[in-house]
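Problem: given the chain below (395 residues), write out its structure.
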Amino acid sequence: MNDASDDGRSASDPSNPCPGHAGSRSAYPVRAVASGSRGRDSYLVTGYAEARRALCDVRLSKDTAAFFAGKDPKRRLHPAVAHSMLASDPPQHTRLRKLITGAFTSGSVAGLRPSIIRLTDELLDRRPARGAVDLVAALAVPLPVMVICELLGVPETDRPQVQRWSADLFAAGEPGRTDAASYAVAAYMTGLITSKRLHPGNSLLDRLIAARDGGDRLNEEELVSLAVLLLVAGHETTTNFLGNAVLALLQHPAELERLRGNPETIPQALDELLRFDPPVSTSTFRFTTEAMSLGGTEIPAGVPVLVALGAANRDPERFTAPDQLDLDREATGHLSFGHGIHRCVGAPLAKAEAHIALHAILTRFPDIRLAVPADQLNWRQTRLVRGLSSLPVLL
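Solution.
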């Protein structure tokens, strides 16, 4: 949700998470690339070591609002989106993250597993009896929406609209659509928070309203911002994670059969699936607050730095034979959830959903296969996230 171009993605081969990077990565793990229409270069990071360093370098700020202030008067993102925890630096980021981290620990997520299992089974039970099934529409999209909406206490009747707003927030090349969605979803969450103050419940949103750290608590603007962030980030990337993981397995039948025969290894396999084809192609916006050197490249102050997570995850300096899917690989060092203080707070929840969904698919549908050739699949074209528009399969 920024207007720097996503040079970590190539429209020429959207089925490849990092096309064109292999040949230049070793010589230029960090390089200048044309960005936007202002005649200003951005810097693209494709090497693993350099990406890991960039993701936690304090000289790279995530304060998007400060960078774009006065630079693009046509943009009108709602402050709840423009000033979110994701787009903030310490100490503000530290304070906000501390107030919400407890909701996404492994222990907290464990309590959600029965609900995720129930929702997964319900969705798969609705599949057509015959013919192809679009696994994105049937499972990968609705499951994360249902889970995060239940977590936040969003009424079931409102969930389809919430899903549409989320998709609009990631619309590449359509700033007007993105800006309008930011206001719509912020207005919705403001109303939901007001309703919950009057009629408290047990949802995560209720707990955020009541959350305190000593004498500190979230103000109204921070509540709306966090609610919008959790709503959007809580399902958009998980949808892509599920679709990408299933496709990777279908394209590697030997690995698929090994996993089906040993479903207890699914939790370990998730890291390799995340490394192989991450749901986020390029990390969220960062810019240099001072001149710095990274990967042998001098980067001036005040320019965007784009970290190509997919390319970094395929760096042979870090992962042997990186273009191969190897479910025996020790892949916990992947960068698909980020690294450092901004590492995805919802990672345990995303993994729980993927574990449950993959287990259900593998056990219920032993003959699952693609309904169309892989080169006919459609991929979403967005600035940050990477995923399939549809995944037709025969069950």
